Amino acid sequence: MKIGLAQIEIAAGQPDINAAKILKFIEEAKKQNCKAVIFPAGAISGTYFNESAAFLRECEEYIQEIKAKNFSNIIVFGNGRLNAIEDNLEIQVRNDVDSFAFDLIAVRENFYSEQASKNNCPLIFVNAVGIQNDGKTIYTYDGSSIVYNSRGEIVKRLPAFTETLEVIDTAEIEKLPALKFDEEKTVAQIYHALSYGVERFLKQIHMSKIVIGISGGIDSAVAAALYTKILGAENVYLVNMPSVFNSETTRNLSEQLAKNLGCKYAVITIQNSVDSTIRQLELTPITFLTDNSTEEIKISGFVRENLQARDRSGRILATLAATVGGGFTCNANKAESTIGYATLYGDCAGVLAATADLWKFQVYELANYLNDEIYGREVIPQGIIDIVPSAELSDAQNVDEGKGDPLHYDYHDYLFRAFVEKLLTPEDILQFYIDKNLEENIGCRAGLVQKYFPTAEDFIADLEKWWKQFQGIAVAKRIQAPPIIAVSSRPFGSFDESQNPPHFTKKYFDLKNQNKL
Asked: Phi-psi region for residue 206, left (φ > 0), alpha (ψ -120 to 50) or beta?
């Protein structure tokens, strides 16, 4: 029996569009003599959708319309909570939908393989392509639908991120040669998911122009290279916004990046406006109208740093984006998002945070991949890849002197990932530290703990500082941050967070006391 695998792009919340597409694919399957057509789950409604009675009723009406066509085919698809399965097949059908998560692709393939071999029956998994969102997080659906033989071997895999109808003859499944399980490099998978997700999202919101603040650092450089490949250089505006703290090194690297990509480029200094804002605030008395007493405002160094970030995003990037009819990006990475190392209403702002589900080391991997594989030349200058990561917001952050961010990314990336993706707490981390196997358990390079934290007091202070940030102010920043493209199994926005005080378990304090830490 011939079966059509309809790997379709689903328009979330658009049952009319989806139903029309289903009918089109059924007609095409009929032309190829298919006796059954399998669609992804949520084919009518999308994955995240309006659950009102009216919407569900309309979805049911489209299901009945499809059934009324009397195709005499077996048609399998899902509609959120509603299912429409015309008949049983002598084959296992999984029409789940799995969003792209590079750390779960192998898990997905192995799971269905086990199901096929356990039941000694071929299995067909049909997945959707396209993007869905829950109002905060944007999920890419990679398709990559799979056919397994009764031994659990993959014998057919549909192309990723491609809408297609593939016809499989059930009589041939056991005769087809086995394929390798997915072994694509993680960085390649990340690039394709991000590129696809960004392109689809911008198309969905009808945005064709993007403004990017570039600093001479790695995050903004990767964003610039990514968006330029998607939109074309003529639709990307790169803006360098130096203050007195920005070095000639990063200014030159920003210009070189813009030249390499061929984008529109501007240098707009912010020092005068920052100084003007500070003077205005410090010279304006604040009056308590009850007794007409006044107080003077003194802008601290920390507030001055944040003021620079807000001036760049809120004044320059937002205004330029509105002027050219586009949006501006948020260039955050997951390490910064975890502990709130960003300025609220400053570099936290933007229409989309494309790389916010990537750890810093993955941003570097993506930079090299963009150079080597996508562009085939050095568009991101090697100097940007080599330079110490630095926000350059004060004299304490001088890239020419090797003074950068207050993070050791080669260690903190893995510590923060343990918090977010492994759900480990300070109790777990401290136990690993005591047992002298912390680096092994969180995955960072051996020797880093002793290098960065010579004493237990240093280690404890660092651990508690970042845990408090992660569960404290960083939550408020994440809640107000732009939507992100999810590429992992636990992107921010995919799980509930509350603005509660940071919590340390009793066992954590017991471990500290028992070990006199």
From this structure: left
